[in-house]
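Re: weekly structure request thread

Next one in the queue (118 aa):
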Amino acid sequence: QVQLQESGPGLVKPSQIVFLTCTVSGGSITTTNYAWGWVRQPPGKGLEWIGAIDYAARSYYSPSLKSRTSISRDTSKNQVTLQLTSATPEDTAVYYCAKGEDARITDWGQGTQVFVSS
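Done, posted below.
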C-alpha cells in the first residue's frame, strides 16, 4: 500500500511561493500508469484539482492555476513537489498529495494546511 506524506511551511506571505513536497513510500513514482498530483480544499469550499505529473514526467495543470503552478519530481528521493507562485490569501487551503491510476484517485495523503497571510 502506497503512502503519501505532504510537507511544507504552514504560513506563507502574500506574493511569495507556496512550496510543498510529497514523499511517497511503498511504491515508485516512476511506476507505469501512475500519476501523482495535488488537490486543495479552501476553507468552506470543495476540492480543487491543481495538477499532476505522471510516471513519464509529463505534467498537467488546472487551466485556472496553470500560469502560477509548477509540479516536478525527484526520482532519487521518490518525491513530487508543488510550486505555486504569487500566493494570495485565496490560496489558503488544505493541500493534498494524491496518487492517480486510470484517471481516478486511488490514494491520498493526510493533507497539510497552508495559510497565506501577512
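The two ends are 39 Å apart (CA to CA). The mean pLDDT is 97.
Next request, please.
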